[in-house]
Amino acid sequence: MLTPTRFLRAQWTSTLHLPKSAFPARPTPASTALYLKRCTDDLYSWQQSKRYDPNCTTSSRPETFVLHDGPPYANGPLHVGHALNKITKDLVCRFQVGQGKLVNYIPGWDCHGLPIEIKALQAQKNSGAEDGHGKAVSRLSAVQVREAARQLAARTVRKQMDGFKEWAVMGDWGNAYKTMDKDFEMRQLSVFKEMVEKGLIYRQYKPVYWSPSSGTALAEAELEYDENHTSTAAFVRFPVQASKAFRGEFQSINWEDLSAVIWTTTPWTLPANKVIAVHKDMDYSVVVISEMPKSHLLVATSRIEYLESILGQKLDTVTSGILGSKMAGNLKYRNPLHRRNAKPHPIIHADFVSDASGSGLVHIAPGHGMDDYNVCSELSIPAFAPVDDQGRFTDAALPDQPDLFQGLSVQDEGTNAILGYLKGIDTDYILGTHVIKHKYPIDWRTKQPVIVRATEQWFANVDGIKSGSMQALEEVNFIPESGKVRLQSFIEGRSQWCISRQRAWGVPIPALYRTDTGKHEAAMDGSIIGHIMKVIEKRGIDAWWTDPEDDPAWIPEHLEGSYVRGKDTMDVWFDSGTSWTLLPEKSNGPVADVYLEGTDQHRGWFQSSLLTHVARQATSEQVAQGIAHQSQTSDNKIKPPFRTLITHGFTLDQDGRKMSKSLGNVISPDEIMSGSLLPPLKHKKQKGKGNSKNEINDPKPTYDAMGPDALRLWVASSDYTKDVVIGQPILQAVNTALHKYRVTFKWLLGVLGLQTPGFDSFDLRTLHARLLDSEIPLIDRIALHRLAQVSKEVHTHYTAYEFFRGVNTLNKYIAHDLSAFYFETLKDRIYAGSITDRLSAQRVLGVIFWELCQMLAPVCPVLIEEVWEWVPKPMKDISEHPARMVWTPFDLPVADVGSQKLNRQIEVLNEVHTAIKAAQERARAEKKMGSGLESSVLISLPGQVNGLTADLLNKSREEELAGIFVVSGVSVVEDEGLETTLKELNPAWNFEEPFDIHATEESKHVKTRTGSVLVVPPNQHKCPRCWRFVAPEPEALCQRCDEAAEEDRR
């Protein structure tokens, strides 16, 4: 035994094996840049190199995994919505790399369309730019507009790409696609050509959503809805004429002054009125206003009471019981806005008429509503819309006085003018007006109201491919499942897709228009498009606008007459919707394994991708039949472009509000990475140095900058299937978790770096194979068992794309199982134990370290790259990088892995440990103890306890249990002997807590019983080396430390 001299006491610290690591508390910008390249460009290139490995046969080459990138708009700075989208995609890709897949992720950008065009023009306007001829930018030519938009898109793509890379998003950046690339545009035109050849594209004069603020037609996917829009609604009466037979049946009616009452929320559409609709099965009445007994009004009987409330007057019934079926075909009416000599219009039946609102009679304007258009088309009544591209009345709105309404904006001054005119002419045709608040469509770009207006537009026939699209969706895995119903409902409710836009920045619709017949007829078929594509291939797409409009090179030789090129461009959803053409076809399934975008893409990119992909596969015969009778063989079955469709929600502030500049609640990704949204770090005062006056008055704040991993961990921690909330509390939790990761790795790196004979030459990948059943202590067995459970659980969550569940599992494991429990039990073994003790602990911690690296690699790649940099060199030299290894869930290489026995032992230890902690806290509250080592524990068991509890809590395990509970000693006694033991010990204090002993498989007849723990002061002396109270006398080493110190001396 070593004599405890003063010299030896001074040297005892040097005999401890304390882990040391210079791993920093937080990343530095310089190191982050280095690690970013390694975990993005280098990792992606490495895994792609397997595609071309000459040693790989076709059968051994890794399976390909394709995540197809839905292109963001190249029109502005990145925001947290971008981060949620791109980082979630990166989590998917990195996990698949970890599964040995060859990942194909090519980022893309949507570069055409109105948002970019408007922003480019605004930038030119703000700079006071002219077109070189003294013309303001508002009068720039189409070519100049396109050049400005192209430059803006190119600049934005570069900036956004740099931002995505800073978030550690890996991908094939060198081959990123842009919808304005020539190759992409030619692919798009090729799909369009096929759809034309199959009869899926047509031109028609019919109502479409029109944005006066943008000056173009819109598809439904380009609409948003203002829930609080206000409109002026009006009850208007139109003079009625009746057939002789009808007059004879209802003689009490004043036929000289009978009016049909209609209700409209869009009075500006009244000039386009062509029909009044009733429902054949509804009951109608003729009523009079008490103050106007001779003016008879025709309304639905069920709406009389409502009409009275709006007009504020009593209505007396003259005649009731008039069925709509009698009125349809027997009554006509005159529109006072039409020419005085115009023919009267019919009153007809329509199925959509109801008595849920209005008067029960519906004003029909086929030029301003699709339902109206369909009803009138069946009666050969043409659409009429006297409204121009800017949403202003033309001179056709009031033929008898063409200048009266011309040029007035229909939705404000035009509405007022219509109502004023109808009220002021010979007879007051306005019964009443009121303001209503209702849901109304707005342009998603300008946020201004849209109108429905009949124009000549190009359409895709969705009806022809609807059935095939719906069938294809049956093969898709939806996350969340509600996405299936949402996408199906959008497709089911759509019969057409307006694909033409009246803007310059886009891919031209390759149509020619004849000019020598006066009809401006469109010519477009497969051969014409094929010819135009050859010219574009040779001259470039801008030549469509720069060449003289009658340039014969664009006109196929077989066309007779004179033609000019059209000016319409394609809907940008058609652009991005054909991006699947960039992917190689797969014989056994969809071209992409995953599409992942926001929930708004059900009506956007998801839908346009599906429709164009189905259109490419469908035959002309299938289109003609609506693909209703497609063969179900695997060879020609209609396939969707995606195998799995993942949808994420929107980002909201911590109060659940959308982010906007006006609310001042916008959070940028840079703020999250820099930590500037959190309180600044406190400055540490330097000892012996005074602070200057400037430092005191104007200290520079230093923030807890955790870099891209902070942004990524926020994304990975969020349940993206719902709207995702972000704010200071959430970001604080993220930073706390990141610091926990770093502290954990710092300690593990320190332990791995301890010089223990036989350890530093282990390959981390195969370290688990060294763990033999006979050499694993119980606590290590428990730790490995928990690691296996957590690894399997995290892997399962990642596989199901539920990253937030995996991260939550990891955080709990690191904080509770490792830091709060297992690491605490190991410190004494590692710091003060023998070589054998330390070696066994290092082996287990090496396995845990390796598994943590693999579990966190998809989430915090920069951290894992940094951690790997600090792995001891001998170990790193023979180990493969964890991000480049196939990750399969860890499995404990011992016989009782996952057994009920081990699970039961864990339950028992948890029960006892909880009771010990509770008793210790009571002792601390009364200042009886500080560290857990300043206590010993008596475990009292009731008699006849057997089975697992008896095997675990017995005298042979007392020393092992003391290490597990981090106390100086454990004594196991039966209830009967507890009193005797206490008398022998005569502790100065004790604190008792009960714990439950549950029935086990071995003793089912035993019900839940109660044991107890008593926390008491140790009855031996403090060892100056390990600080446990197990030394036989003051200043003496305990036996374990005595032997360990001797071992180190050798």
How would you explain this protein's 3D organization?
The chain has 1050 residues and is α/β, with parallel strands linked by helices. It folds into five domains: 141 residues, Rossmann fold; 167 residues, Rossmann fold, CATH 3.40.50.620; 210 residues, Valyl/Leucyl/Isoleucyl-tRNA synthetase, editing domain (Isoleucyl-tRNA Synthetase, domain 2); 174 residues, Isoleucyl-tRNA Synthetase, Domain 1; 105 residues, hypothetical protein PF0899 fold, CATH 3.30.2320. Helices cover 39% and strands 17% of the residues. The two termini are 14 Å apart. Pfam families: Anticodon_1 (PF08264), tRNA-synt_1 (PF00133). It comes from Glonium stellatum. Its EC number is 6.1.1.5.
In short:
With 1050 residues, the protein is of the alpha/beta class. It folds into five domains: 29-64 and 76-180, HUPs (Rossmann fold, 3-Layer(aba) Sandwich); 183-212 and 452-509 and 568-646, Rossmann fold, CATH 3.40.50; 230-439, Alpha-Beta Complex (Isoleucyl-tRNA Synthetase, domain 2), CATH 3.90.740.10; 711-884, Isoleucyl-tRNA Synthetase, Domain 1; 915-1019, 2-Layer Sandwich (hypothetical protein PF0899 fold), CATH 3.30.2320. The strands form eight sheets. Strands 7, 8, 9, 10, 11, 12, 13, 14, 15 and 16 form a ten-stranded mixed sheet that branches.
